[in-house]
Amino acid sequence: MNERFVSKESLTTNEELVSFHLSSKVVSGAIGYRSGSSLFTPVNFTFQHIRMRSGKEKPLCVYWNQTVWSNQGCKTTWYNDSQTICSCTHLSSFAVLMASVELEEDFVLTVITYVGLSLSLLCLFLAILTFLLCRGIKGTSTFLHLQLSLCLFLANLLFLTGIKQTQLKILCSIIAGGLHYLYLAAFTWMFLEGLHLFLTVRNLKVANYTSARQFKKRFTYPFGYGIPAVIVAVSAGSNYQHYGTEHYCWLNVEKGFIWSFIGPVFIITLINLSFYLTTLWILRDRLSSLNKEVSTIQNTRTLTIKALAQLFILGCSWSLGFFMIDSIAEPARSVIAYTFTIINSLQGLYIFLVHCVLSHQVREEYKKRFKRIKVTTETDTYVLTTLSSHTRMTPAPGGSEEREGALINGTFRKKSLLLCTESTENSF
Fold first, then answer.
1. What is the residue-wise DSSP string for 45-86?
2. Helix or strand or coil: residue 251?
3. Which of 21, 36, 61, 66 is the most core-located residue (most Cβ within 10 A)?
4. Rounded to 10 degrees, what is the CA torsion of 141, 142, 148, 151?
5. Where is average pLDDT lowest: 70-79, 175-184, 205-214?
6. Rounded to whole angstroms, how far apart are CA atoms 370 and 356?
């Protein structure tokens, strides 16, 4: 009983199914002498599978229609690896067909993913440069933002270049392990951001608790990069064959292996959510007292609100993946898939907008650097124009070497005057 007894015209499915085989006993039912009569109330059948269902197989409830299997009037209401429940509106001879699912990519989702991740890579690169080069915003928060941006940048880059490299099993497993580690590291650094905000709000004068030196050297590096490494090492040591699938270099969802990623993400999201809600509650009480540090508290509250939004973008968005299962019907499943893809592919854009573009302190640093570049460019142009005019009008006496020396000395004198002028302006 294989695909020779299956006709595409007699099957109604939303997916491309191939390689049919019978996976249950045949059960027949009848009322009186009539066969195929309609029922006012659907009848449910629970079928035990002849063999365990694999992850890429989908059960199909069918009945025998003269010479072929058909699923008209029957639907699959629930299934797992060992059994399937069918609901039919008529009586006949019923069974369960197992079919392999041919994965067909949604072209629009693919375009959104690649365009969004490319934009995120650009934004994350600009954010990393901002956190590294702008000295006026140096601090513990900036350091944590930098580490988070680095992890997301590397994860998105590896995703774009390696998610479909399934030709070599070993290479695909390494890519899946790298993605597992980098995404976990991003969530771990996000947890440290929440912890830092919580400690800061507990006591606005916590230099002895969260100074940049102690927070960076004694705590954050081993925790931010060490904990994800331990999780990946334990997962790979126990089930290394589950890194990489037939179609993508990611974690295999069979036998609950995906929980090695979903579990830590879920725990970190809950802990951070409690941190941020507690922080906002403490700030609300302190703002009501209107003490002398109200501006500092307001700034901290703004940073907390940004971090809470970041938690939703980076953390809660992954929870949408729980609802992308076969039991969710269309169009709800497509809406969830598009929402999940859009939010996760634009994480880098959010970080750059919130922590760089919308930050007053960062914008001031941008203005200072653009002003310096403009002044330097205008001065160089003025020096070159002046030297060129002076050379044409009054050439220096002596040979060509003496004239070149005069030009170089004149350039150095102009540069020295410019540096002295900038130094005087900065001192004021």
1. EEEEPSSPPPTTEEEEEEEEETTEEE-TTEEEEEE-SSEEEE
2. strand
3. 61
4. -150
5. 205-214
6. 15
Tens-digit pLDDT profile for residues 58-99: 888 988 888 888 888 888 888 888 889 999 988 888 888 887
Indicate whether 7 pLDDT > 70.
Answer: no
Q: Which residue has the tokens 């002003």?
A: 371
Pick from 192, 197, 189: nearest CA to 299: 197
- Rounded CA-CA distance 390/25 in Å is 101
Give the separation between CA 127 and CA 244, rounded to whole angstroms.
31
* H/E element, 42: strand 38-48
The arithmetic mean of pLDDT across residues 131-159, rounded, is 88
Residue 251 and residue 177 in contact, taking contact as beta carbons nearer than 8 Å: no
Q: Tell me: the pLDDT tens digits for 108-128?
A: 888 988 999 999 999 999 999
H-helix or E-strand spanning residue 130: helix 107-133
Residues in contact with 138: Cβ distance below 8 Å, sequence separation at least 6, in sequence order: 212
From the list 179, 181, 210, 208, the residue with the least C-alpha distance to 193 is 210
Tell me the C-alpha distance between 72 and 9, whole Å.
Answer: 10
Residues in the chain: 428
Task: Say which amino acid occupies 104.
Answer: E
- Measure the CA–CA gap between 156 and 408, rounded to whole angstroms: 48
Token representation of residue 63? 């009945």
Q: Which of 74, 193, 87 is nearest to 141 (CA)?
A: 193
Q: Is the Cα dihedral 309, 314, 319, 323 positive or negative? A: positive
Q: CA 280 to CA 275: how far, in whole Å?
A: 9
Alpha helices (H) in 291-359, listed in sequence order: 294-314, 332-345, 347-352
Question: 374-404: per-residue pLDDT in tens?
Answer: 666 656 665 556 655 555 554 545 444 444 4
